Amino acid sequence: MKKIFISFLSLMVIFVLAACSDKADPVNSKVKSKKEDSLTLQEVFEKTTEASKNLKSVHSDLELKQTMSVPGQSENMNINSTVSVDMVLDPIAMHQKMKMNIEGGDESVQGQAMDTEAYLSKEGFFMFEPTSGVWMQLPKELSDTVLQMPEQQMNPAEQLNQLKEFADDFSFKQDDAQYILSLKASGDKFDQFLKDNAKQLMPDQLKENEELFNNLKFKNVEYEIFIDKKTFDITKLNMTQELEMAIEDQKMTMKQEMKSTYTEYNKIKEIKVPQEVLDNAQKIEQ
């Protein structure tokens, strides 16, 4: 049960975008007519893809609300999180701060509040453990896995190409400053695509668990993506989804609402692990 619970939580973020040939409808009649207003979604897609090739660094802020119903627990678990991340792509480095609050669920987790911080760099993967108040250096195998990931997987626009086949399912709107893309990705048509993306986020030992994915169902998945008209950078991504997993004739469900923003494109020059962390972190063996 613990492994299934952890794997269920790992299905938290899937970034998506797509392309088609329709022009964007104005959000309201006050939108001024500009040259970029006549672009089709296919053209916006191409320009966003081109802009993403120049990405060197980015800052993101994320708000995540989750409600989980777990077999054997009489009360739903509510998890509210805020995450702030600085990311540099070449070489890959990251600084992350996260605040998490858990209400309901099992008595062992009720009322828990957690503030964590992490650094990832060529020196390794370091995480602050709030209950003991110490920094830990995670196993080298774990940091190597992340550091060897293709840069494209760290790019907020990388998922653009993956949804080309669903181009006709997007709605395409605009206001004076941005393009707004929306997609309802529920139903059998999107099921395998969503499962494949979820699998990419899972640890290697869970990717081979076919039963896990056979018992996983996505419901009511919706995306809303905002693209700046001048830079063609993704500025905001909102997502809501409901997951359902069958476990021994019982169902575990998770409803999730995510709001993320992307700023500081190419303004973060480097990320350094503080010397105090390097000197005092406790090494954790795999």
Helicity level: 10-25%
The rough form would be described as: globular
> Count of helical segments?
7
Distance between the termini: 21 Å
Sheet having the most strands: 13 strands, mixed
What is the mean pLDDT? 76
Low-pLDDT windows of residues: 1-22
Let me know the number of strands: 13
In percent terms, what proportion of residues is strand?
35-45%
Oligomeric organization of the protein chains: single chain
CATH topology: outer membrane lipoprotein receptor (LolB), chain A
Q: Which class in CATH terms?
A: Mainly Beta
- Quickly give the CATH architecture: Clam
User: How many domains is the backbone divided into?
Assistant: 1
Keywords: Signal
Signal peptide: 1-18
Pfam family, one: DUF6612
Organism: Heyndrickxia oleronia
